[in-house]
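Q: Predict the assembly, please.
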Amino acid sequence: MLSYILRRIVATLPVMAIVALFVFSLLYIAPGDPAVVIAGDQASPEDVERIRQSLGLDRPFLIQFGSWVWRILHGDLGTSIFTNLPVSAMIGQRLGPTLSLMIVTLLLTIVVAVPLGVVAAWKAGSLIDRAIMGFAVFGFSLPVFVVGYMLAYIFALELEWLPVQGYTPLNQGFWPWLENLILPAVALGCVYIALVARITRAAMLEVLQQDYIRTAKAKGLGQGGILFIHALKNAAVPIVTVIGIGIALLIGGAVVTESVFAIPGLGRLTIDAILRRDYPVIQGIVLLFSFVYVLVNLMIDVIYTLVDPRIRY
Amino acid sequence: MDRRTVLKGLAGAGGLALTGLSAPAIAQGAAARTLRFVPQANLANFDPIWGTQYVVRNAAALVWDTLYGIDAQLQPQRQMIESEETTDDGKIWTFKLRPGLKFHDGEPVLAKDVVASLSRWAARDPMGLMIIAIQQELTAVDDRTFKWVLKQPFPKMLYALAKNNAPCSFIMPERIAKTDPFKQITEYVGSGPMKFAKSEWVPGAKSVFEKFTDYVPRQEKASWLAGGKNILVDRVEWIVMPDPATAAAALQNGEVDWWENPIADLVPVLKKNKNISVDIGDPLGNIGSFRMNHLFAPFNDVRARRAVLMALSQEDYMRAIVGDDTALWKPLPGFFTPDTPVYSELGGEILKGKRDFDAAKKLLAESGYSGQPVTCLVAQDQPITKAQGDVTADLLKKLGMNVDFVATDWGTVGSRRAAKTPPGQGGWNMFHSWHAGADCITPAAYTAIRANGDKAWFGWPNSPKTEKEITAWFDAKNLEEEKAAIGQVNKAALEDVVYAPTGFFLTYTAWRKNVSGITKGPLPFFWGVSKSA
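A: Predicted assembly structure:
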């Protein structure tokens, strides 16, 4: 298993290199010029050109790309064109809020969606099943920002239970950290709760029709034992898969959520960097996200072996 | 006990015990000494000479002081300067610094710091470049005295040093000011009333300023960038909120204290809240604009440009930008900021009265326009430009023009407008923007009014008579001469249609009622602003 994990990690390097080249090329040919944004609206064309030169943006593509790759190989993600801060430091600053949001969302998803899916499968065809699946369709259909505004209006403005925006690091207290994350996590989680609940229901339905479940029932095993010990473990592979894919998708959802709730995370950093054409930051983030995708896939594969011993690498 | 307390108790009981959070009373006190402000945009960099965005200038005004400051009467007043002298021929200026000025690192402000700072500023500022062009020498005479020797007089010297238009002549320590003006500084040490907390800076999210306790304010009453800059809070936190609805909610909820520029759509909601004050933020407002490319057909012909001016309705543009609040806009038959000392409407008839589409179409036909596509660049990510673009597209269609509407983002518009290639080959025919009214009071910082061909702003208008009158303004020796020159600039620029002004509009600012001392001005002034618990 260890050699498999190592092989997989090594295999990520060419993937990331291809992604890096693709992203760099895309940015190079895309319209837009960071020097223009830096110089401001009243700047003269000469000022803009001088800034382009000072940033090295007037150099040929291959030289720019080569220099970037050289820095990456030396563990240097470069320096932001705008802030003049190291890209790695900027990403480090923003990683905490995004990770926190993703963790809380993921926990919320697992805690809510899996039991909902199990109950829906157990009560298939009943009113409860239809209600849960109706909720799932509703949750899946609403855009994150609509849910976000609704939650902020109800729970922040009207009831004044939770803050509208912002982020407090965990080292400043558990509640200050959590209170800023509840609304965004619920907004972001709606889609994933719906998705995971539906997948759980479908997987459970299939398992619940198996002979060993009938045997377990015949032996007089309790409902909880049948559902959560026998059935759920055997239905876990597709559920783990969709949760894993969900983690990757959460990154995309975080972009909108972080903007709506003014959370200083990687999503907002990405949008800001793209709008300003802050190339080193965009490249750094894309590399990080690529690595996360690969890592999540690897983790899913490892978890498969834990929930289904028949799977071996 | 309310639900929030219960929630806090349930979710945080363990965590609270572990982390030992501050008691509520202490937290209240700290909150009252921290002013939380939502700026107009993200402070993405912090070099006010290298990057000239307004948001950078606004933040820089807290950290760096200037030799002179413009006041609410638009007059330059001494700020870091104790006295100045000029020779009878106006060619030698000798300045003396106030005693006791200190930088945030504890070092005294010396004349050599001023010389280095002015040199860096002048390389990037339009008025500074004019001074450099006639400069003989700029030297430090002693620790507190410096001398600027010119080859010919420059009557607007004090205005240049006092102006609030970016880049302002902020004074930095010599070691920092020696940085190439086209490269970013990395130390943010000033002598202004607040220090920049670099360790707390999260670009795109938060910038923190702390009171500089060694700052010695002037004794005069504060007035814009002049007078006593007394800071009455310990910290000012700038919290960037990309979403206006979130900013509105945060202000209503008391999570922030002051929102620099609420969008017009949300102002009615804020006005209904008894805890919030809403008022016009900047009385100098903004001037909407679209620029036509003078290099290529159809707008290389003045008749085509005049045809558009004859037909455009500034009311349409203004309503598209600010909505139906008529207190927020006024028609503008010219280029200069209304209600300022040298404002003029001379030659503005073409923008007044009923719009004449028939005459405009006739004039357009005379210009030789024969249906070729007109490439109209519109930045969709900026509501003001998007709104104007939609109105222009409609206007041009009504005039019978073939509109190639390029809806894109600001980054793309910003780079494409610099292209001097024909519209069909990556160039353009028109793009939309707007100018801060503070920049449009006189030609001093008004890049958009310049009409010196290749050296002019994008669109490259060439109007020798406009340029002649601009020079007359720079040479004017009193207000009457200035007024006369500005009138002629307005007339000439309208005749040649340097660009199309789409109207004058104002924006609001909003703050919690426990904040006091907020004044109207071209930038948010934090001196004199206090906050009660």
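The radius of gyration of chain A is 24 Å. The mean pLDDT of chain A is 86.
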